[in-house]
Amino acid sequence: MASQVLRRSLATSAVSTVKIGLIPADGIGREVIPAARRVLESLNSGPKFEFVDLDAGFELFQKTGTSLPQETIDTLKNECHGALFGAVSSPSHKVAGYSSPIVALRKHLDLYANVRPVKSVNSPAFPNQKLLDMLIIRENTECLYIKSEREEVDANGLRIAWADRKISEYASQRIGKMAFNMALTREKLRSEVPLAKRFWKHNPRVTIVHKSNVLSITDGLWRETVRGVKQKNAELYKGVDMEEQLVDSMVYRMFREPEAFDVVVAPNLYGDIISDGAAALVGSLGVVPSANVGDDFVMGEPVHGSAPDIAGKGIANPIASIRSAGMLLEHMGYTSQALKVYDAVDAVLADASILTPDLGGNSSTNDVTEAVLKNLT
Q1: In the chain, at which residue ranges do the beta strands (DSSP E only) sit?
Q2: Is beta strand 291-293 parallel, antiparallel or unpaired with respect to 113-119?
Q3: Where are the domains of the chain?
Q4: Could you tell me what percentage of the chain is helix, strand and coil, using 3-state DSSP and rounding each to the nearest 5?
Q5: Can you say whether the dihedral through the CA atoms of 135, 17, 35, 56 is positive or negative?
Q6: CA Rg, the chain, in Å?
Q7: Which of 6, 84, 76 is nearest to 332 (CA)?
Q8: Strand runs labelled E in 212-328
């Protein structure tokens, strides 16, 4: 799909062993990443996997004063073909010296796209679920996540906090290209599925999310640049419809009629909020995967957080991490192996007899993992 350089260097080459960095980080990350590893190890086709355990996270920061060791960065860059990241417990208040390791990794590895599929599953566990098949593509390197903040005191002694926001033509253009290319790829994949079984039955469509009616310079540049991707490549993308949605009305419409969206592309902050909200449409954050994608590296990452309230209880939902492992395979070019992972997860959800508490069941992390392994054919 997106990682063309990576695909050439792995699936189409003589690489027989794929080295994956495992970064469980905080909370339930230490429970769900091992589950994803077990699934990868159980695949009976494709490459052999070698895993390397790496450190990062807020809990590591509390112990050592660093949230992302240089050794972790160097190992990922120099030794690994891809990675799986668990979850990070970023505090809601300022902690001197701390910065999010996942945000830093995206920058160090130039993982400029966060790709988050949100697709409904035909399951008795979700009787009122709408049929949707949406792909949210979040620009991963800019917006307010550049973390350029400062504080001042006014003449009255009152504090004022400022945050800089960055939107560049370069980043907007490359994420726009990914959105339109993935719209075409999704259409090709759908052509192999009978029309009656497709959730999306229209032309491929890219929805550009912005707030340029208020932020006319930053979001104005974003909107103009992403629209320009289609306009400058009219012949290539002639079969792809394009629309726009203001971010506030996007949230409203997404909950009212999520079936109206195919590929949604958004700046970093909007994409983060939209994709987390979209998880409510398919049952739980515990089932929604993502992949941080660059041109030569991919890092799978479940959308959920570290969930400290259930950490260590053995009831965390491993499905998001397992699906993220599938996305890792997919973006490395191992499509058939990725489909096996997706199908095994869908079979467990469709059966609905083995579900973790977030989905209304009483099964454990291990129960769900074992069920996925049994369906892995």
Answers
A1: 17-25, 48-53, 82-87, 113-119, 133-139, 149-153, 159-163, 205-210, 241-246, 263-266, 291-293, 298-300
A2: antiparallel
A3: 1-114+289-377, 130-138+165-282
A4: 45, 20, 40
A5: negative
A6: 20
A7: 6
A8: 241-246, 263-266, 291-293, 298-300
Tell me: domain 1-114+289-377, CATH 3.40.718.10, correct? Answer: yes
Terminal C-alpha separation, the chain: 24
pTM above 0.85, yes or no: yes
Residue 307 Cα distances to 71, 98, 316, angstroms: 26, 19, 8
Q: Residue 149: helix, strand or coil by DSSP?
A: strand
Instruction: Give the CA distances from residue 349 to residues 15, 286, 292, in Å, rounded to whole numbers and listed in that order.
Output: 33, 12, 25
Q: Contact, 107 vs 299, CB < 8 A?
A: no
Give me 98's structure tokens.
Answer: 């701390």
CA 173 from centroid of its chain's CA atoms: 19
Same fold? 1-114+289-377, 130-138+165-282 = yes
Helix (H, G, I), strand (E, B) or coil at 233: coil
**Encoding tokens for residue 283?**
């049952």
Residues 6+ apart with CB under 8 A from 259: 130, 131, 132, 199, 200
Sheet with 133-139, edge to edge strand ranges = 48-53, 17-25, 82-87, 298-300, 291-293, 113-119, 133-139, 263-266, 205-210, 241-246
The span from the CA of 354 to the CA of 197, in Å, is 25
Separation between Cα atoms, residue 295 and residue 3, nearest integer Å: 5
Per-residue pLDDT of the chain (377 residues; tens, 9 = 90+): 344 434 434 554 555 789 999 999 999 999 999 999 999 999 988 899 999 999 999 999 999 999 999 999 999 999 999 999 999 998 878 888 998 999 899 989 999 999 999 988 777 777 778 889 999 999 999 999 888 999 999 999 999 999 999 999 999 999 999 999 999 988 988 887 777 677 888 999 999 999 999 999 999 999 999 999 999 999 999 999 999 999 999 999 999 999 999 999 999 999 999 988 898 888 788 999 999 999 889 999 999 999 999 999 999 999 999 999 999 998 998 988 998 999 999 999 999 999 999 988 999 999 999 999 999 97
What architecture is the 130-138+165-282 domain classified under in CATH? 3-Layer(aba) Sandwich (3.40)
